[in-house]
Write a structure and sequence with these properties.
Blueprint (H helix, E strand, L loop, with lengths): L1 E4 L6 H4 L1 E4 L9 E11 L1 H10 L13 E8 L11 E4 L14 E5 L3 E3 L6 H5 L2 H12 L8 E4 L5 H12 L3 E6 L2 H10 L3 E4 L5 H9 L2 E6 L2 H11 E9 L12 H5 L4 E4 L7 H17 L6 E6 L3 H10 L5 E5 L2
Parallel strand pairs: 8-9, 8-11, 9-10, 11-12, 12-13, 14-15
Antiparallel strand pairs: 1-2, 3-4, 3-6, 3-15, 4-5, 5-7
Helix pairs in contact: 4-5, 4-10, 7-8
Length: about 325
């Protein structure tokens, strides 16, 4: 099969290779998926850069993708052959991910793809949508609540806005440019605040009042204003803290509010949460009319360009690989 891989951590242009690799064979409880599209997520780029060490002898990067099951291993229903699926967590704890023509993975990680969605859209569903779902719903329904989505034009933020609106919340998003504000509004945000212009706390309060739930892209950097905005018994669900990796928790200011601080890491979240996300995402796709934002598509042979596009941080939307 054709695949992209790296044998050591490092910059994309220095370590990524593209060529022929042996076709994988599914083991017990596994399926093999013939991929048609794959996403390049920030976590894939960070892993290649060194956040996760290489699993010998090489790593095929990529968590998310979509395609057709073409082979099943022992203890898997043979009726799954020919099924259109989206896949997630493909390379977590394993060497071989979705930047290839084929991937083998546990059958639970290959989820039926609705007929209305194409493979490119299916490749968008994994990490971003499941992260957004966990941030929003881990602490119960959001109907009637005020939800703040920081980084509302980011990939996770884009789906968090849509899912929150679908579930009956009022949503305010923070962004850093007018182009990103337009993107957040298109996703359904009721109010959008450019955090570079003026008092974020005052502007959010003017728009929606206090906040019940925060879907947080940069915990440490944003705590000074999210702490003020959070209502008593509110929740901050954080999936990253890149700007300030060691957050300073305002314990005294928080104490009387009895808030919840939840960290969300889709790879290791409970299996029950993954199952519930899959069920709810299927409903959302049927009922909510999801809007996908694909910023760039690169052929597998140009995987270096795809990784660089993600690293640049300038794209609004997801970066995909087209698998020949």
């Amino acid at each position: 099969m054709l695949a992209a891989w790296y044998e050591r951590n490092g910059p994309a242009a220095e370590v990524l290779q593209v060529g022929e690799r042996p076709d994988p064979e599914p083991g017990a409880h596994e399926v093999r998926v013939r991929l048609h599209a794959a996403a390049v997520n920030p976590s894939d780029v960070k892993a290649r850069g060194g956040s996760r060490k290489v699993i010998p002898p090489y790593v095929i990067p990529g968590s998310d993708g979509a395609g057709i099951i073409d082979r099943v291993g022992p203890w898997v229903d043979p009726g799954r052959v020919g099924e259109r699926v989206w896949v997630y967590n493909a390379q977590w704890g394993r060497a071989f991910g979705t930047s290839a023509q084929q991937v083998c993975l546990p059958e639970s990680l290959a989820v039926p793809l609705p007929a209305a969605l194409d493979f490119a859209q299916g490749a968008c569903l994994g990490i971003p949508c499941m992260t957004a779902h966990r941030c929003l719903f881990a602490d119960g329904p959001v109907e009637g609540l005020n939800v703040l989505v920081t980084g509302g034009a980011g990939v996770v933020g884009h789906y968090a806005i849509q899912l929150a609106k679908w579930a009956g919340a009022r949503v305010v998003a923070t962004v850093s440019s007018e182009a990103k504000a337009a993107h957040a509004r298109a996703a359904g945000a009721d109010a959008v605040v450019d955090y570079r212009q003026g008092d974020v706390v005052a502007r959010v309060r003017d728009a929606v009042g206090g906040i019940d739930r925060v879907v947080e892209v940069d915990l440490g950097s944003n705590l000074p204003f999210t702490s003020e905005l959070l209502k008593p018994h509110g929740v901050i669900a954080a999936y990253a803290s890149t700007g300030k990796p060691v957050p300073e928790l305002p314990y005294g200011a928080w104490l009387w509010k009895n808030p919840t601080l939840r960290q969300v890491f889709v790879y290791t979240m409970p299996d029950a949460a993954k199952r519930q996300a899959i069920v709810d995402l299927a409903r959302w796709m049927r009922e909510g009319g999801p809007m996908f934002a694909i910023a760039a598509r690169h052929p597998l042979a140009r995987v270096v360009d795809a990784h660089r596009a993600v690293e640049s941080g300038t794209k609004i939307g997801q970066v995909l690989l087209e698998i020949p």
